Amino acid sequence: MKLDVYRRELRGEFRRLRRDPVLLSIVAIVFALLAIFIIFPLVKVIQYSLWANGSFEPRYFLEFFQKVYYWRPLINSLIVGALVSVCGTTVAFVFAYGIARTDIPGKPLFRLVAMMPIVSPPFLIALSAILLLGNHGVITDALNLNWDIYGLPGLVLTETLAYFPIAFMILEGVLSKIDPSIEEAALDMGASKLRTFLTVTLPLAIPGIASAALLVFIRSLEDFGNPVVIQGRFRVLTVAAYHAVTGRYNLPLGSTLAIFMLLPTLMIFVVQKYYIARRSYVTVTGKPSGIGLKSTEKRVKIPIFIAMLLFGGVILLVYGVVLVGSFTKLWGYDHTLTLANYIYVFKVGGQYVWDTLRIALVATPVGGLLSILIAYLVVRKRFVGRGAMEFVSMLNFAVPGVVVGIAYILAFNTPPFQLTGTVFIIMLVFIFRRMPVGIRDGIAQLQQIDPAIEEASSSLGAGFFRTFIRVTLPLVAPAFLSGMVYMFVRCMTAISAVIFVVSAGVQLLTVALLYEVDQANLAAAAAYGYVIIAIVLTAIVLMRFVVGKLFKGGLTPMRGE
Amino acid sequence: MKKTRMVFVLVGVLLLGLALVGAAKDTLTIYTAFDADQAQVYIEAFEASHPNIDVEWVRLSSGEVYTRLQAEAANPQASLWFGGSNTSHIAAAKAGLLEPYKESLAWQYIAPQFKDPAGMWIGLYVGYIGFVSNTDFLASAGVDAPTSWQDLLKPEFKGEITIAYAFASGTAYTTLAGMLTAIGSPDPGFDAEDEAYVAAFSAQVGQYNSSGSAAATMVGQGEFGVGIVFSHDILKKAVAPGYPVVMTFPEEGTSYEIGGMALIKGGPQLELAKVFYDWAMTKEAQDLYEQFYRLPLNPEANLAAGSVKATDVNVLPIDLVWYGDNKDAMLDKWSEVTGEY
User: Fold this and answer.
1) In sequence order, what are the beta bridge partners of A151?
2) Fewer CB under 10 Å: which end of chain B, C or N?
3) How far does the CA of residue B304 sit from the closest CA of chain A (Å)?
4) Alpha carbon distance B216, B237 (integer Å)
5) What's the pLDDT tens digit per position in A404-414?
6) Predicted-assembly ipTM surpassing the 0.95 threshold
């Protein structure tokens, strides 16, 4: 019976599609793009890891568990991921609780500081850790310590700093949306503040905490920029896969390692999206639940405030020392201030700035528009495979950058889609890798907008494009903007995927930065980092200004991952 | 009206973007294993003397150039491979990735041991592997700078040695060839003594790097105690900037590299590449090595003061051609022995 109903519905949807040729062709084009640029490369990875010379030969799969230098990096990555997930979520919870549930002063400042790791280029935090805590770092020398920051301690420290902001954003949203009346009820019935927190607030926040922790785990697992600087002998899987491909050109091995990286992240993605997200006790849409109960008790807020001050201070120190480093002549020995590092960056890297910018300037609007288009199709239109479209377009959220990079060189090195060596492959990596954030924000926003306005446009005779551009797009301007800002920031700061597809004609700033890191030119690397930060901040301000002028709407602050 | 304006702006941004992508110029594309700042000096000098040729270049380590040539064999993107240890050039020549060029002007005056008999590659410069030690570290650890391959195994150096991954850098692979020659039997390849030595050495390493010369800077900065690097990189990156370092050589004899240059088979601009090739062997071009302490192979080019010549150090009789030919097998073996790859 049920199957029959389903079949009838399906037939109906097909019929509807056939009656609307514009929608049909747009859906077909979007599906084709997703198939070519998301599914096909991943299929190639699986093919390369399992087949050799046309026959089934999973050589590296079998060797993976036999050779310590293959499986050890996976174990190491999982250890780092678990520790970073716990540390990052804990720090984020303190920050989120302080901002959402207490009346401490300086909240905008704390929020700004917590956002810094999101807009900063890769490597910088690890560089800073070496400048401060390395064998000859400022703090190491000052306190005459004898520790070793390279390896596990450095990885956990740098990645906690780098990825706690993602957890913070989720937890702030969750904590500020918990209905205060539930907590008031507990207090009225005589429960203590602590008991209320432990038995009411915390359980309500658990799904959010789980989501945040899993997301941080994924980000740590796929991190390339920090490990490549500070892993020491504690090899992690991303760097191992990178070396398998760029050092040995062993594509079957690289693909196999990629799959072992992909399996945990995909599993977590599915668990988060289809299990935890559905257990959320806070309503994201629907009627506003008002402002959460603010804790004004000194014994709660003073420790939180102090912890936030300390941690915020650490972040400022991290970025401050890199800034000083970028103006220093010979770090560690000659601390004369100099502009030489910046002169070097503009002499050697002038072309890189230009190349990176022109790629970002194309990828940003194209990616922004495509994300909103997909969000629009998914939310507003009914067609066969709508769920599949959402899933596939969001898939790259869970695919580590190193895997995307390996997948793209496998997929686009030979006809029919020969793209290696062009700027297009770099743009495509950016667009398809970073679209999920724009799509997610677009979907969330569209779900809150009454479709009646668009229906009115259609009834008055406007076609698909006219309605989409003149009605939908202005309505979702905030999501459109945040999608574009995010895309642009990532174009300027991403490294893990694009490192595989850069070529002679095009150079990227982050690749130049990686090169200086490889050479241990810490000062030049720091200078590149701050050039990138300056460009990113300028662009964010400019984009807010332009889109603000165009839409005059209330703009949401930038969302991260 | 706001919305119309927005459409215009969006279309404008798109068009601007497409215009920026632009059309590719007709230029010479080269892969270089010289450090970016050095490559820039050489290439700008070339462009200054050849105003009608525009050089587009990518900096890769020599191992990466080799792997990239393999990847692009069906569709070569570059025409010339400029610099890097010639073991990679030898491996690439064996894999059929290079184009012979015996007609070059330099062919007559470069000694036979510095060029491929079939003309697949030619030597630009030579370099000798040395040890760079941070003197602050030596003082605080109470140990002398290493002067033999065996010295590197001293307990004081545990976790204090830095070198590149053997597969990622010509420096590290050249060092490996030196170790295998100096320890045990000098026959090429691993014997039992070599295996034991390489495993014990790897246990001393604090960090493996992706780039060969990085170790010189890291030791200068005091991050690690001892680095194994080419002498010209030690002079350029650790001695010249003023870091507290000392350079030593293994008394059993050290390893050396020939920096190579080659035309890439099927490269899109081979005629332009030959112009660059001929220029790179002139005295004018090779005089530029002086500022980087490299030892030019053009006999008329200037030498930097303080340079390390073959007469200054004991050089091992290393079969570079064999190590180039057997690079893949050697790297596999290295992974087995060290547990790194």
Assistant:
1) none
2) N
3) 23
4) 6
5) 999 998 899 87
6) no
